[in-house]
């Protein structure tokens, strides 16, 4: 499980978004080799108004994910490594307006990762989210 925060700026039907996400390490299996990580992404897209209070955002996105892990087995720590993977992806974000300031927003994200060097590995990222959105 991960936790994330994002900020959006809308101008007409154009959407800009910055997002930060990090894993909740306590939700991973005890024998997981993950020590931590975070991802940073920026997106630009278009909001399509459907009917009444329902709209859907379609965004192209890019950024990077950084993970820290170790290669120990049977409880040993082993060596610690950091992997950085640049990513490009898409976001589909349905939004249901409850009032002038509150809405329920969903999100489907998929990012394709690429290795950042000879020893790096690609990190693909996909998630589904539901959030209560506050609009100023």
Tally of strands: 7
Domains (count): 1
Uncertain stretches of 5 or more adjacent residues: none
Question: What CATH architecture do you see?
Answer: Beta Barrel
Radius of gyration based on Cα positions: 17 Å
Q: What does the average pLDDT come to?
A: 90
CATH fold category name: Porin
| Helix-strand makeup class | mainly beta
The secondary-structure element order is EEEEEEE
> What characterizes the major β-sheet?
7 strands, antiparallel
Portion of residues in helices? under 10%
CATH class: Mainly Beta
Helix count equals 0
Shape: elongated
Biggest sheet: strands side by side, in what order?
Answer: 1-2-3-4-5-6-7
Organism: Flavilitoribacter nigricans (strain ATCC 23147 / DSM 23189 / NBRC 102662 / NCIMB 1420 / SS-2)
Protein name: Outer membrane beta-barrel protein
Primary descriptors:
136 residues; mainly beta; Porin; seven-stranded antiparallel sheet; 7 strands; 0% helix; 68% strand; elongated; Outer membrane beta-barrel protein
